[in-house]
Every structure is written in structure tokens, then in C-alpha cells.
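User: Here's a protein and a ligand (adenosine monophosphate). What would the complex look like?
Assistant: Let me lay out the input and then the predicted complex.
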Amino acid sequence: MKTLDNLLFDNRFARLGDAFSTEVLPEPIEAPRLVVASTAAMALLDLNPAEAQRPEFTELFAGHRLWEQAEPRAMVYSGHQFGGYTPRLGDGRGLLLGEVINEAGEYWDLHLKGAGLTPYSRMGDGRAVLRSSIREFLASEHLYALGIPTSRALCVTASDTPVWREKQERAAMLLRLAPSHIRFGHFEYFYYSRQHEQLRTLGEHVLACHFPHCLEQEDPWLALLREVIERTATMIAYWQAYGFCHGVMNTDNMSILGITFDYGPYAFLDDFDARHICNHSDDSGRYSFSNQVPIAHWNLAALAQTLTPFVALEKLREALELFLPLYQAHYLDLMRRRLGFVCADDGDEALIQSLLQLMQQGTSTDYTRFFRQLGEQAPTEALQVIRNDFVDLAGFDAWGRQYLMRCEREGGGQDERRTRMHAVNPLYILRNYLAQQAIEAAEQGDYEPVRELHAVLSRPFDKQPGMQRYAERPPEWGKHLAISCSS
Ligand code: AMP
Ligand code: MG
């Protein structure tokens, strides 16, 4: 176990130099308070959980103090935002403080979000508000607990520093952890600004630090793209299987590691609606729930474009064709398990599609609760309970007959089935209204609800005594919260 004082830094990205990032010191926030810390994320740095109680912890993560070995820098990148290219973005309000090596030899980027103005702030104030910091914290640690690839969150600090959004709010900071903060947009920046030497350096850095096994391939650049395609396909399969809507899939929000990144107006589906748009500012529905699959493919094509100086076009095109089949195979596998099946069956895809169609037509159960209830009792009894929630009863009964036959082919006892299904079907999910209630309390200075929600969502599959209210159906108002991009 380590303390805050003996973390080991090795700042590999900073060493790439000024073409890649700019040295900037964090601007502290006034009168910082620790809102919440994740002991699971602290463990990634081998930090003793008790370290969160030290005043130095809050000081470090509110910009008041800095490790001697830290080298805070704002990264430069660009990206396609809602389909249009923005030539220069970069860390407008976050700083890469440095890279920490843990006892297992893993590297973790320490990124302080909300750390003040940088050369990339454009019209922004360099700050993050409390509500968006709490939302990113909760989601990062919850997606991790669900088994979904994601960046992590160490803590949130709140302050008295006023910031102006639609109304006056308070500045906060989030400490984000990830093995890398490199985005598709990093590659696009060097490609479109015709800095191909720097582009090569960036690619070689990614290969050496994150995908060393690709260096053994005949064409490491092509292997790099394939790796990103595979990881992104896996991540998107999880999003679709668990009803997660990211909301702002701009290429600058896509991690080169294929992890869920830069949380904004995200949402988990309450009712199943393939057309759901969680971002209030996304008028055309470019990033609607079902569009996440083709958009991920589009974003990968944008990344592939930046590799044209190194790989033949034909090879890049071939690699991109891997995305959809990889996605479909992962998705099918996840959904099969959510339905309680271990073995594969030819009819599974049709069974899943017809279920989603029935859900789309209307049900008063919800997407998350459906799967949990399905495993709670033996199939016949479970279907009997759930059926009353569906609008198309005849359609559901027909589906139920197919499902029962499928369960018979699968075999096995109910106890084992329940254990297996409950291990992949969460009882608790991060619903927008739950986050909203915890945020409202935090804005009044009461951090207990955020901490409790975080604790519950860190073990989403385990029934926790006294926490039933977190597993309930959402209230009607809770399904229609408008979450904007402003954060
Ligand atoms: P996002 O929508 O959070 O992914 O941000 C898009 C771009 O705007 C990134 O380059 C951010 O760093 C930048 N940005 C967002 N909010 C602010 C802010 N309050 N101040 C400065 N830059 C910001
Ligand atoms: Mg972003």
C-alpha cells in the first residue's frame, strides 16, 4: 500500500514534447471539499483508502498542491463534432498531471478535469461544474462495476468558486484515471495539420506504450487499427446490451483504447427505445441509442483516414469491414447471457430482435428490470409475472413460447440459472433521476446521497440490504429529464 507521498511517476506523454501538449499549472478552486472518492480507483494506484481522509488528498485534487514529479500539461487534439471537422480542440479545462506506475507495473494517467484555462480553452472558462463532475464520477465507477470498458474516476472535489452556465453554479474538479488519454482526435489533429512526422511519433508511442503486441505483427500500423476496431466493437456491444447511451460520440470523445470516455449527457435507457436521444442538444438524433453502432464505425473510418500515410487504402478498408461482424458477435454473446443461455443456438438473434420489438411497442417494466425479473424465478413463472407489463400480450405470449423451448434446449436447474443470470443482469443501474437527486443534495452541501449511490452502484449485481429504493422503477418525471451538453 502506498501513500500520496510515495507515488512513482513516469511521464511518457509529457516527454513527447511541445508539439503534443503544453505545460500549464492547475488553477485551484476556492475552499475545496472532498465530495466522494472511489476506494476501488485508489487501489489502482495502490493507495491506502485512509489517504482520502488526509487534507493533502483534497488539496492535490483541487489544484492547491502538486507532486514534485508531476508535469501538468494540456494535450492538443482536434475532432469531428456532430459530423463536422473542428481543426483544433485540445484539453480546454483538463490537465494530464502525469503518469503513475503501480506495483503491478501498470501505468495510469492522472487527469484533473476542471483545472482552469489552457491554450485550448477557446470561449470556455476552463472549469467543470459540480453536477457534471458527479455524473462522470458515478458513471465511470458504475460502468466499471458492470464490466464495461471505461476510464475511471478517483474523486470529485467541490468549491465556492462561482461559474456561469445557464445559471450560476459552483466549480468542481474530477480526477480521472485511464491508461491513456489519447483520442481518435489526436491522430486527426496531426493528420489534417499535415504534421506527419508527429503523427508517426504519436502512433509509435501508442504502439510501444499500449499495444506492444502489435509491433510483432507484419504491419504494426494496420495491427493498431485492427486492435482499436476490435476494442471499440466490444465497448459498443456492451453499451447496446446494457442500454447505455453516450450522447456525444464526437471523435475527440473516442478513446484510442476503446474505453468509454468523456461522459457528458449520457443515460441508461429506462424504457427500451432504440431511437432514444439522451443529449438535449442533439436535434437530429445523430447520437441516438441505435445510431451508436454506425457512428462508431464512422468514427473508426475517420481514424483509419489518418493512417493513410502509413497503410494502403485497401488494407484499411478491409480492416474496417471487421467492425460490424465483431460487434454483432459480441452483442449476441452478451444478450444470450442476459437471457440466461450459455450455449449458442441459431435462433438466438431472431429471439433477441423480436423481444426488442415487443419492448419498443411498449411495456411498463423497464429494460434493466426485465432481465433481472426474468432470472428471478423459473422461466414459466417469470414470464407469467412479466407479461402483464407488455402492451402486445399476444405477441409476448408467442415470444414466451419460443423462449421456453429455448430454455428447455439449454437445460439446467433454476438455482444455477438465477445465479448465472443475476451475475450479468444488474439489480441497480445509474438512472438519470437517481443521479439528479444525489446532485441536488450535493449542491446543498450534503454529500451523503452521492456517496451512498456510488456505493450501491459499485456492486450493481448484489442485492444490498436497505437499498431497495435504488432498484425501483423510475418515476414518470425521472424518465424525461433533459440533460444538456453544458457542463
Ligand atoms: P466536451 O463536449 O466536454 O467533450 O468538450 C469539447 C471541447 O471543449 C474539449 O476540447 C473541451 O476541453 C472543451 N471544453 C468544454 N468545456 C469547456 C470549458 N468550460 N472551458 C474550456 N474548454 C471547454
Ligand atoms: Mg470531450
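Summary: The mean pLDDT is 97.
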